[in-house]
Amino acid sequence: MPGDVYDKFKSLLIERKENGVVLITMNRPEKLNAMTYEMHSELARIWNAVEEDAASKVAVITGAGRAFSAGNDLNNPDPDADMVREIMSDALKIVRGMIDCSKPIISAINGVAVGGGAQVGILADLSVAAEDARIIDGHTIVGVTAGDHGALIWPLLCGLSKAKYFLFNLDTLTGAEAERIGVVTKAVPKEEVLPTALEWADRLANMSQVGIRGTKAAMNGWLRMAMPILEHSAALEMADFFHPDVHEARAAFREKREPRFPSAQ
Prior knowledge:
By secondary structure, this protein is of the alpha/beta class. The chain has a single domain (about 10-190, about 210-265), classed as 2-enoyl-CoA Hydratase, Chain A, domain 1. Helix content is about 45%, strand content about 15%. The protein is built from 11 helices and 9 strands. Helix 4 (about 150-160) packs across helix 5. The termini are far apart.
């Protein structure tokens, strides 16, 4: 529609469903919805758009094709200092935007969710994951601190010890195991992921909007109190962008080999 609040988004598909439900789809299926810098920036702004959309009641976010999002596209250009500051700003805006958006956000994690993809999937108020989805924080794999959401929310969801295990990337978390330890709300067969998320959204849209939004705002006080943890981890991650470990991780990815991190030699 002309003048729609979502017109400016190019890498996200926005579909208005019935009853005030907005479906947001990360749309690079040929790249497992890996994030360009443009997509990352749009994810930083979409939650304010949902908030501004008077017709919206609930947002559902998913990925096109067989993945939710493979996280940062390692084929992105190496960022300079100014771009790193912009990336950090956008990462913080994604978190704050999802926490502060008054309307419930539901993630439909239909496949692999890595890094920034895991960030969006796990920070949603409710999350439905495919039982065989792989949820990978991924930061230490590419030589940086887990800085965009992990240190903030994983300990609240599954406890400090489990959070460290998965943020250190000692194992891959499946959707089924994520439900068992509390990282996602529910795990279902892959074909049921989006229908379940949309069914929850429709139910929420028919509930007291005052009651639902107030409950979200109050409960997210736990996350607001932990914001210094997020900011600390994000700053460490951005500093790590200039460490030789990151350059080795990128080279290894492009050359399809295992990295040999200088800091581990």
